[in-house]
Amino acid sequence: MEHELLRVKEPKKFDFMLITILGVMALTSFVAIYSAFELITSDVPSSLLLRQIMWYVISFTCMGFLIYLGNDTIYSFTKYAYWFLLGALIYLFISKHVVTRFFGYDVNLPFVVPINGATSWFQFPGLGSFQPSEFMKVVLILITAGVIDEHNSQKLFDSYESDLQLFRKVLMWAVLPLILIFLQPDTGICLIIIFSLLVMIMCSGIKPLWIVTGCVLIIVLLGGFLYLYIFNNSLLTSLFGSNSLYKLDRIKGWLDPEADILHTGNQLYTALMAMGSAGITGHGMQLNLVNIPEAQTDFIFAVIGQSFGLLGTLFVVGLCLTLDLRLLRIAVLSKVMKEKYYISGVLGMLLFQQVQNIGMIIGLLPITGITLPFISYGGSSLLSYFIAISIIMNASMKAKKLSDYVYES
């Protein structure tokens, strides 16, 4: 059996389809960032492209290393990674909410650099930035997969009490990181983590009534929020506090962007202008017809729409869908329940980001700071995705090996 497991690392067992999809996404990201050169004002555009290429090289190299190690070795280090990242989040919390409170808002602990009011990054001279929350979302998915698998293997029968025990076990690992990330503040990653964990729990075999109750609760909360926003905005503001006014402004800018195109509706209005004027084939690369904000990160899909029109946006949507379907196929073929739970969490994470990012660009969803996976610029984000996909790659090779073994038998 040991010999059979070692053969899983044979090159012929690699999921070349998945590698090809990632390669096409890399090229798409490079072209999109190149197309945004005239729109980028926060940095030197060419350096951003070179750094994105560098991070893709690092990410593919990391993937090769993790494939060599295998999933069993990765699982053994998961909890160590969790405690390390939790310590990093606590360090960022101390810098933002303790040090600055006692010593002034322009004072931070070493290697901490606030960006746009958020304390989410470490900055290491000569090495670049590091965002612990990006990696924590992957680690939490991996830990939750183990928790669900262990819980299901130990429970004697299905019951509401057993489901409550599962919820408690998941919350024990997830609550503190979520609080620390929310206080940075980074609501986007909190939403990504919550959604991915909810998808995993729904796939864990809990009683359907929990899912129905959760959906009803979400509908009631959203309905209550919209009612207060439309008919009693002052009460809504008092409930959320004065610090949440900018978030409420985002809702206003989403519902009626043309009411204030210079402020609350500016981002959505410019994104719609860029994509709506591009037609079928677009205006071409490196144009600044519409000043798209955050062109290389949050609004990279709008850049693609402006440059390549409807055909370009459909290509990106199709590429994302191809990746999602490939991951779904691997989950179906896998015979290891822990890997099935894990892949469902990663798939939930990717789907949420894809739908949210593309939806906010075209006006279907409110604008948030959520990027488009594998396409938007970002080192920590890209590397975290590749770590997540590496584990799925190992699961895919194991499924192929098992399939061949059964066929040969």
Explain what you see.
The chain is mainly alpha-helical and 409 residues long. The protein has one domain. The chain has 15 helices and two strands. The chain has a two-stranded antiparallel ribbon with strand order 1-2. A hairpin with a 3-residue loop joins β1 (122-124) and β2 (128-130).
Tags for this model:
two-stranded antiparallel ribbon, globular, disordered C terminus, 409 residues, 15 helices, mainly alpha, disordered N terminus, single chain
Layout of helices and strands, plus pairs?
Layout: H1 2-6, H2 16-35, H3 45-69, H4 71-76, H5 78-103, E1 122-124, E2 128-130, H6 132-154, H7 160-182, H8 187-202, H9 208-231, H10 233-240, H11 245-255, H12 266-276, H13 300-333, H14 337-361, H15 379-408
Helix pairs in contact: 2-3, 2-13, 3-15, 5-6, 5-7, 6-7, 6-8, 6-14, 6-15, 7-8, 8-14, 9-10, 12-13, 13-14, 13-15, 14-15
Overall number of structural domains? 1
Structural class: mainly alpha
Range of helix content: over 70%
The main pleated sheet reads as: 2 strands, antiparallel
| Terminal residue distance | 14 Å
Tally of alpha and pi helices: 15
- Please indicate the percent range of residues in DSSP E strands (runs of 2 or more): under 5%
Radius of gyration: 22 Å
N-to-C order of helices and strands:
HHHHHEEHHHHHHHHHH
Overall pLDDT score: 86
How many E-type strands? 2
Walk across the major sheet and give the strand order: 1-2
> Ranges with pLDDT <50 over ≥5 residues?
1-8, 405-409
Task: Give the overall silhouette.
Answer: globular
